[in-house]
Amino acid sequence: MASIFQSDIANYRDERLKVVSPNMVRLELALLSHLFTIGVKEWGMAGLVNPVMQIRKPKLPRGLDRRLLPGELDRILSAFPRRIDGKVGGVEEHSITRAFQRAVARARANYEKEWEEKGIKPDPAFLVDLTFHDLRHEATSRFFGKGLNPMQVAAITGHKTLQMLKRHTHLKAEDLALLLKQPPPSHRMD
After folding, report:
1. Helix (H, G, I), strand (E, B) or coil at 168
2. Per the confidence metrics, is the pTM higher than 0.70?
């Protein structure tokens, strides 16, 4: 372990960033760092320097905050071709993601055609820059909009930590304002 230098870790980081997400690299670096900490604390390697602590960590991408605009979900669902067996896409890896991308592209094309026929300029943000993962954000946010608490939402979505649940939740200001206007629930025992 003493022969591993910060340049080795930096090279590892840079190579891994070519094939996996920045978050995955951060997790791998945390694991390596922990190994060096255990070496010092439990294996008696008192002079060991943790090279992971001496390099820059990859920056995490900005959290996704794309919420569906009114009407987008209906258009996407209508653009999905249904198979006889009820499944969407094929069996190969990422087929749902590709099917979603094709459905969004078809929905956008139909939207543009419809609005151009009406002589109206289409909204440049409508059905643009959507990913399949945005649907998880949308669903998580809608659960909160229905008044579910964090424990209930996490039980449905499978989020293991409050931090990850927060990362996938993007509440709309107008929804929060409506909740603030509602009277508090009655705690009477009639």
Report:
1. coil
2. no
